[in-house]
Design goal:
Strand content: under 5%
Largest sheet: none
Shape: globular
Helix content: over 70%
Distance between the termini: 36 Å
Radius of gyration: 19 Å
Structural class: mainly alpha
């Protein structure tokens, strides 16, 4: 978590807070997901779909900025923010597959590593493993959040150039996704060994 200035009691209150401005922004971002699904599948309003995705992407940056500015980082926010991002991203990708914009293999390539990580986290830690988000993971998510609306924009504008550019972002994102999965999985196993290996124990000795 980011450092929180002020006395220790204020930090403790802030870390356990639920109704904070950043958390409310995260909830609003999550509510954008069903709106996007409705616009694309029910209305075929691809331009508005791009607009909603752009808003969701901007709030992803805004909630982190506000949390630091208002000193409102929280345990709930640390968990809720990445979960909201992942659920929203998967829902958007499923929508794009159903609409015929993305192939099924790309969705599976996105989902399978996430399912493996989630299963390993639940098995080893019974919940949150408290792993730091890597720069590669953030870049991967950013590339997906750029490439996906760009693909919709290509459809709305009937632009071949935008279509090709969107796949440059999406292809790069999938490569980074596989690499990030490997990094997170190794970090998960390493943390599990650290927590369960008694202090001072030499590997290979009882």
């Amino acid at each position: 978590m980011n450092e929180i200035s002020g006395n220790s009691s204020a930090s403790a209150v802030g870390s356990d807070a639920i109704l904070t401005v950043p958390n409310l922004i995260t909830v609003v971002r999550f509510l954008g997901t069903p709106v996007f699904v409705w616009l694309v599948l029910a209305r075929q309003e691809y331009g508005w779909g791009v607009f909603v995705l752009a808003l969701m992407g901007s709030t992803d940056w805004i909630d982190g900025f506000v949390a630091r500015k208002l000193n409102q980082t929280s345990k709930l926010g640390r968990i809720m923010d990445p979960v909201t991002d992942r659920v929203a991203l998967v829902a958007v990708m499923i929508t794009m597959v159903i609409a015929g914009f993305l192939p099924l293999w790309l969705l599976l390539l996105l989902l399978i590593p996430d399912v493996v990580l989630l299963s390993a986290t639940l098995y080893f830690f019974r919940g949150d493993a408290d792993l730091k988000v890597t720069l590669l993971g953030k870049t991967r998510t950013a590339a997906l959040m750029i490439g996906t609306p760009m693909l919709l924009l290509a459809k709305a504008l009937e632009s071949d150039f935008t279509f090709v550019l969107s796949w440059v972002f999406l292809g790069s994102a999938m490569i980074m996704h596989v690499i990030a999965f490997y990094q997170y999985f190794v970090a998960l196993l390493h943390k599990h060994r650290e927590l369960h290996l008694p202090a001072g124990t030499v590997q290979g000795r009882p």
